[in-house]
Amino acid sequence: MINRINQLAMLLGLIFILLCSMRTMSSPEFWSHLAQAEQGTQLSWIQSDAIPHVSHLYDSLLHTCWKAGGATFVTLLNSLALLISFGLLIRVAAPWGNLLSQSFALLISGHLIFRSVEVGPGSVMVLFIALFSYILTYVNKRIVLYGVLVVLQILWTQMHVSFLFGPTLVAIAAIAHAKSNPSKTKQTPIHLVYLIPLLLIVSLIHPAGVGVYSHTFDTITSPNPIYWFSIMSDFFQVESVKPMLLFVIVLSAAGLITLKKNLPKYHTILTVIGISLLWTSPKMSLQFVALAYPFLVLSIQSVSVYIGKSLQSGPKSNKLLLSAQIIALALFVVSVVPIVTNQTYIRNGSASTCGIGNMTDLYPVELSELLSHPDFPDRVINQPADGGYLSYIYDRSCFIDYRSGIYDENVIKDLNQLLLGDAETFDRFYETYRPEAFILNCLYPTSAQGIVTLIQRDWKLVYFDGSTAVLIVNRPTYESLFSLSNLQQTGLMKLEKQRKAFAHAPYQKGNSVTLIGAAKIYLALNRAKEAEALFGLLLKEGYAMPGALIGLGNAQLMLRKFDEAFITLQQAVETYPSRISCWISYEKACRLTNNDEQQSRAAKRIKTLSAKFKEATTEEDS
């Protein structure tokens, strides 16, 4: 009976992993991979040359699956790859923990990777790391080991820049075997050492040849722009990953202290590397879990055994086991419910929802008529989120997308500064690229002010639907585009349709990216009445995200509803006391309502938060 409950707990852990991966697709990187499959790697008109197509096999397979079964087929295959990966990791971790420990490790892993799991090559990376660890753990015959790992390394190199993990894992295994009792090792260290250069050499069996190494180096040294989970996180109070990271570090340390067996050197080294990667960026959670999962199991098992022994045997020990099983089941329920009801996606600012599908509202989906018009300009500036979509759907060169190792980091910095109204940057940017049109994603933090900046410089807004805005420089050449009134109506009709659907069933389909973008743009354009209505709508169902509270308060200030604004912004500072933008708006509301005491308090808080922000910025720069 006990074993069956443990089996159930582990099965539920795998179901949790599956549910974390079953989400509607909103990752911009997905479209770049599809575009590369059809057009090669020179997607941007600012690229002087095509880059090595490292992921050519992955892109081709993704494109084939997309054509065969669309979002459903692609999502299911991605989830299957993740499940197979965890199945292999469970086998690798089997000597170090029982089924119940595995179930807890699966739940922890699901929480860690939730914001990093997308339909993309990340799942393939986890699969290859798991395969390498499994083979290095269980394959005894040297010929089989060499043959299988060489084939896997060749395949890995055709799919993702993470292929260097292959030789790295073998090197770590060699170090671990060198430090272990020779009678207990399945491979001699020297034979594993011979395998390392062999894997590095066979990685050159790639259409790009040595280019795979140069592009991998570029990706590591120049990772910008980086996409992680959402492009509108500034509108929300995203849950910090630090508590979970600290918990994992403490758990691993406890495992080291309480373990009575000899420490598994291979898994220990991998865990140290995994923690180092995760500490540098929460985006590295997939790498951490793939590397450190067996040690997580070991730590949980070691701590539980230590607690069990401290309680000695008998009824207390049995009660401890029963309590652990109940906790595992309870954690599963507590973890799953917010995901299947979309609460986790909504609160963390994701455009995805639990399930299968394609979230196209995030992208410029209604621009066929405009982009195919013979007078539409060629030199168009877009932000990274729309780059891959524009390239694949409309078969046109983009300005920038979310591929790493291609663009100078100053490109995205200058674009943001331009949109925020920096005159010097605008002139320099314009002189360099000579843009004639901007396609802006309204969810970016700089887009609302960017539309104002461009309009003030005599650019015309020719399309707006809440998530996308298109502006064209005001020249007689483009008069035919300015007269497309039907196109303008199409965007506004889409926005109104989304508004009515959301008003009827708020958050039934997750976050409304259209309404969030529209509310921000209306506020920036001083259309306070429309902004107030949309921000008020977004605050339904108890989702008091900071962006909506601040937006509503600022709209009320514009409408001279000072008392209402004071109440709204007071809620904002009480709910989000560390958001300086809340306090800035609140200070203004206090001043306009003659609340001197609260205004003084707000001013002090702004000063404190400003100092902290400057200190944090200085540390990052150094």
Structure write-up:
This protein is mainly α and 622 residues long. The protein has three domains: 29-40 and 52-220 and 237-347, no CATH class; 359-539, no CATH class; 544-622, Tetratricopeptide repeat domain (Serine Threonine Protein Phosphatase 5, Tetratricopeptide repeat), CATH 1.25.40.10. The protein is 66% helix and 3% strand. Helix 4 (99-113) packs parallel to helix 13 and helix 5 packs across helix 12 (285-310). The radius of gyration is 27 Å and the shape is globular. 44% of the residues are buried.
In terms of structural class, how would the helical and strand content be classed?
Answer: mainly alpha
- Spatial ordering of strands, largest sheet: 1-2-4-3
Spatial extent as radius of gyration: 27 Å
- Overall mean confidence score, pLDDT: 91
Q: Which consecutive residue ranges, at least 5 long each, have pLDDT under 50? A: none
Estimate what percentage of residues fall within beta strands: under 5%
Oligomeric state: single chain
Biggest sheet: strands, sense, closure?
Answer: 4 strands, mixed
DSSP helical segment count = 27
Task: Please bin the fraction of helical residues.
Answer: 55-70%
Shape: globular
